[in-house]
Design brief:
The protein has 290 residues and is an alpha/beta fold. Helix content is 39%, strand content 14%. The longest helix is centred in the middle third of the chain and has 28 residues, at 112-139. The protein is globular and about 65 Å long.
Length: 290
Amino acid sequence: MGLLDGKVAIITGAGGGLGEAYATLFAKEGAAVVVNDLGSSLDGFGASAAAEKVVAKIVAAGGRAVANGDDVSTVTGGQNILRAAIDAFGHVDILICNAGILRDRTFAKISEEDWDLVVKVHLKGTYCCSLPVWNWLKDNRRPGVIIMTSSTSGLFGNFGQANYGAAKAGIYGLIRVLSIEGRKYGIRVMGVAPNAITRMWADVPGTREGEPDPILRPENVAPGVLFMASDLAADHSGKVLAVSGEEIAEIKMLMTEGFQPKGSYTAQDVAARASSVFFPADLKRVLPKA
């Protein structure tokens, strides 16, 4: 028996890289998979038959899958992706929002087009795909799981990725809100901040040099996402996991003890109590690069 027997999963951006690794493993674990991919280049141009190739591989291995080439960043596209699942398999249980593009620039050089398109694909695309699945699960009183892709570029920052980081930080906020709203419907919402060598990772500033580390293959992220999507994680929602072949760890928002002024205070009061307001300077650890 597989961890996802009888489940139907929609995976966006599944024509290669992380999405392909998720789709292949999910199918192996018993899920029927909608493989969505527009097949565009890394910066969002063009289209290809990437989804069809992944579907062919899954079917050849004895799995069930259908291809979908709709644009995740439009409301119509999100609706069509859900419809592909319902038409092919009758229902949906899992959504993995994985599709993304990059247009990396330092902040001073980001054009409005570069900003809008990256935010549209990542943040709006997560909205466009999640909303129809959310409403279908809610209206059909069916529990489900939505996993959204954030990034340490948004949660901790990364040079040259202001547009991408802002979108990924926005997704973190969406995860937190929907995990609260989803409680009454039995909808779990989680996030993954993956660290793997894909075509996106390979073009991140500062990561182009050197040979790829095989431990950072997309296939080493997929089991962590499978855990989140399966009943093994039934008690978890609203949480973001950093996942790679090197480490699996939760990332969460924290507050210091702070100081409580009990009313009026001055800027000098804040400065005098800086040690309780800020985290200690030595409170740090090595973070993933993507």
